[in-house]
Structure formats: C-alpha cells, structure tokens
C-alpha cells in the first residue's frame, strides 16, 4: 500500500496524508513549530492517488 | 542507525487510566513506560528517534518528550493519525529514516536487558531485517517465527493453530530501507490494518535474509493493568535505591527504598522495600507501604496499608483499609468512611473502572 506523507519544511515533522486530509489546513504538530501544513502541499500525484483510494486509508 | 518509536494506540485495555492520558506515559517504578524505550535505544547508540503519534495523547507525549534533549536524544515527530497498522506507522517514517537502517520499538514494551544484543546480531551479518523473539508458553496467542540455522527466520505466522515454534515476536524490529518497498507491495489485512508481519513475510518470499535474536530476561507488554503491576514488580526487583528524602526518627524503613529528595516518611510508618516514592510525597503515621509499590508525585498516604501497587500521583489515600495489587490513577482520593453513617462504601467511579470490594 502506498503511504503518503508530508514533511514540514521548517522542523521535519512528518504528517500522514489521512491527517492532512482530515484537517485540510493545520498548524504543524512539531513542538514549537509555527508552520502551516495543507493537504494541497502534497504533490498533485499524491493528492489524486490518495483521493482515488481514500477508502484504504480509513480503518 | 535510527530509531522509530511507536507511541500511538488507544490504550483501551488500560481504561480508565488512559481516559486522561496515553498508555505510554503510565509510570512503572515512577518512570513513564516510554522513557524505558528511549533509554534502551540510547543504550544501543541510537539517538535520532522518530516518535510515531496516533490520534490520542499526542500533546501529553510531546509535552513529556519535548525535543528529546532532556533524555539525551533528538526527536522528530511523525503523525500517523488513524491507526492503520504497524506497517503503515513504519511506512510513515520513510522520509525520517532516509537511507539508514533503523530499529522499530513499540512504546509500551519493556525489556529487562534492552536491545543491544538484537542490534548487534543484525549488524553482524548482511540482513534485510532482524526481529526480537522470546519463548512463550502459549504460542497460539502470538505472532510466531519459524527459525532455521544460525537464527535465520524461515516463516512468520500470526496466532497459529499449529505453531512451528514457541518463539514469539515481541515488537522489536531492525530494518533496512528495503522494508519500505515491501510495505508498498502489501495490502491491508482482514482487519483493515497494514501488518508488519506481512511486510517481513514479503521480504522472506522475495529471498531476503531475516535475522532473529532470542531475548534473554523478561519482556513485558504493559497494555493491561496486571501487566503494569507485573512490570512494576520486575523493575523494582532490580531497584537501585537512593534514600535522598527525609526519614523521621520512629519510621521503620527496611530493604531497598528509593526515596526522592523532597519525599518524607514520617514517624510511626513502616515502609518495606522494594519501594519507590517520588517527589513531594508524604507517608504519614500509621501507614504501611509494602513490597513492590511505587508511589508517584504529590501524594499523601495516611493510615493505609498498601502493597504491590502503583499510585500514579497527585493522590490522597487515608483509608484504613488494605490496598493490594492496585493501579490507582492520577488525582484519585481513597478516604476513610469510618464513623460515617449510614455505614457503607461511597464510590464515585469513572467509566471502565474495576473494583473488588
């Protein structure tokens, strides 16, 4: 199964696509990091793959 | 080599303790379980650690671990979100791991002798992965490995009806980045989770070499209250006790008793080790604290008899009753009903509490 994540460019915290998709826009969960992470920050390929296969990323 | 520490999960088997915090922060001998894992990784020379966070208890775990500097390590957080399986959690760590080999450690596991042997065994050959195993009496309840010559794993099977051995996977793995290719190839299991055993089996089927190391000494998964008590007993058994706190004249203190600097054992009380008593805690007159008890911070115990128990902290115990084999959550109060009418036990009990009266 393809696992899609986004790495915060400022602190290196990694966030899974399911978390990004749930929130769409979120403050980076890294300790003390003020960056904003978005589902749209994923590459177009990752986004479309995730959305086309959304069910497998839900328990 | 890097470390990936799993700190997700709901902790449902530890309710109600985990209603207010993650299971990885439940204390064993007055130290959160996850700290033992960090120390094991550090002892194996691993200081770059990715901590996988689920949906529950993130803030508490990040608040405790911070950037890792207080524990002598460097922590990167990896938010898995939904619990999609151990292989999914490992897969989320790919960008953190990069081209390094790495150890995966379940954050609610404890090992008496750490992971140095497992890491050294893996590094002693050309392996695609290494797994830690331990002999168990009930192999049908575990993931089991079939092992051939020189500890080479030949097959993995989950909860087998006909076990090929009694060697159970205990949740410590060493991987090369090739595991990420295996994870990409597998599909979720019948329970909807991406299973790490499937990924390792994929490596095996692909001709990969999987090392195994049978772990000596005890191993505990601290997922249930009885497991926490057992782990507490095992850790206290080897307690390096320092009596830094205050022991009043007239107090009777026997055996190995670890007493934090700001803790007090007052006159007229008896403490019989092995026992750990944390900061700002007072054992008052008339109290007996018996073997295998850990009393957390900011707690007062008066007149009670308590043994083989874990008191998480911020607790008041003034009952004259005997408390044994108990796990008492943060902020609990167990007071005396003596002299109150009508006679009886007065309980304010949260969801999922368990009492034997």
Strand content of chain B: 25-35%
Shape of chain A: elongated
Strand order of the largest sheet of chain B: 5-4-1-6-11-8-12
Q: Averaging pLDDT over every residue of chain B, what do you get?
A: 92
- Largest sheet properties of chain A: 2 strands, antiparallel
The Rg value of chain A, from CA coordinates, equals 11 Å
Helix-strand category of chain A: alpha+beta
Main β sheet profile of chain B: 7 strands, mixed
Number of helices of chain A: 2
CATH topology of the largest domain in chain B: Spore Coat Polysaccharide Biosynthesis Protein SpsA, Chain A
Task: Using the 3D structure, state the CATH architecture of the largest domain in chain B.
Answer: Alpha-Beta Complex
Q: Give the strand order of the largest sheet of chain A, numbering strands 1, 2, ... along the chain.
A: 1-2
Query: What's the SSE pattern of chain A?
Result: EEHEEH
* Count of discrete domains of chain A: 1
Number of domains of chain B: 2
- Taking all Cα atoms into account, the compactness measure Rg of chain B is 22 Å
Keywords (chain B): Nucleotidyltransferase, Transferase
InterPro entries (chain B): G1P_thy_trans_l, NTP_transferase_dom, Nucleotide-diphossugar_trans, Trimer_LpxA-like_sf
GO molecular function (chain B): nucleotidyltransferase activity
Pfam families (chain B): NTP_transferase
